[in-house]
Amino acid sequence: MSSKIADIGLAKQGQMSYTWARTHMTILEKIKMSNESKKPLSDYKLGFCLHITKETSVLIIAAKMLGADIAICSANPLSTQNDIAAFLSSEGIKVFAWRGQSERQYRECIESVLQFQPDILTDDGGDLHTAAHKSKTRFYGGTEETTTGVKRLEILQSRKRLKYPVIAVNNAYTKHLFDNRYGTGQSTIDGILRTTGLFLSGKQVIVCGYGWVGKGVSVRARGMGAIVTITEVDPIKALEAHMDGFNVQQLSDVSYIGDIFITCTGHCRIIRKEHLKKMKDGAMLANAGHFDVEIDVGYLYSQDKFPILVRPNVECFKCHDKKLYLLSKGRVINLVGAEGHPPEVMALSFANQLLSILFLSKNYRSLTNKVYNVPHEIDLKVARYAIEAENLRIDDS
Ligand code: ADE
Hints:
Rossmann fold; eight-stranded mixed β-sheet; globular; alpha/beta; binds adenine
C-alpha cells in the first residue's frame, strides 16, 4: 500500500514541526524510552484515525519506535497538516490524508486504513470504529480519544454489537480534565482569533454547553475580557456555570445580543433557524464540538447559496437582511482554524493512548467486547510523568 497525501515535498517542514512538538511532549519520550529495547509492538499492525497534527506525529513515531507497523487517516476532512502527513509518509508510515478532502475521499481514506488489516484501532470521534463494525475483518481491540466517539461505542455495546474491546481513553482523568477543558479552551479561542483577527475584549460571547469543553472555552474567553453567557439544558451544569460567575440564559433570549456564538455540546442542531433569525448583523458562529452538526449550516445555505469567503475560514452569509459569519464551515474550529491543542496537553492524552495500546497488546485475549475505562494505574502513571515534566514536587505522605 502506498500513501495518499498532498505533497511529499513538505516532509522536511513537517519534520521541523514534529521536532518542535516532541521537545514539549517529554512524557511520550519517556514512555518510548522505557519500552524501546523490547520493541513490544513489533508483532502488531496499528490503524489510526486521528487529526494529523504535529502532536499526533509524536505519538505515531513513538509507536513506530516500539516496533509497530502503522497506517493512519485523518479524523476530519479539513484538519490535516499537510507537512506532517508528508513527514510521516517519509518515515515509512502509510498515510491517507490531506487537507480539504471531500466527504467521499474522507470515507475512502478510512477504508484504506481498514484494508491494511490493523490489529488495534485508535480513533478520534468513532468514524473508524463505525466503519470497522461494517467490515468482516476481526480486530484485537481499539482505543477512543473523544467523548463523542465513546458515546457511539457505548451505543454499540448496549445493542450487544461491539466487536472488540475498546479502551475509552477520553475517560481517563489525565485526558478529559486537561485536554477537553484547558486544551480546547485555549485552542478554540486560538482558532477564533486566527480566523477572525478580531479583539475578544468586550465582545458578547455565547457559549452553548457547559461540559468540560464549554467550561474551558468560557473561562479562557472571560480571561481575555469577553462578556460570557452560558446556555445549557442540564440544570446541574447550568447551576455550576451560575456559581462560576457566568450569565446563564436561554439561547433564544440571548440570540440577539451575541457577537460570537460557540457551540460546545456534542449534540445536533443547537443553533437553529429561530436563533439565526434573531441574531444581529455581523454575528459570528463557531463550533468546538467534534462534528459539524451543532450549527444548522443547511439553513444558512438555504438563505444564501453562495456565501462569500471574506478571509480564510470565514464565510459571510446574507440571512434575513443581515450578514452572519460562519467560521471553519461549522467544523471544529480549533483544528480547522488553528493547530488544535498545544503539545503539552496532547502529551497527556497521547501518553494515555500509547499506554492503552500497550495494555491492549498484552491483554486483549482476556478482555471481552466491552468499553473499558483506562486502568487507573495508567492514569496515575501519566499524572506522575506530567508532574515531573512540569518540574513540580508533591508530598509522599
Ligand atoms: N485534538 C485536539 N487537538 C489535537 C492535536 N493537536 N492533535 C491531535 N488531535 C487533537
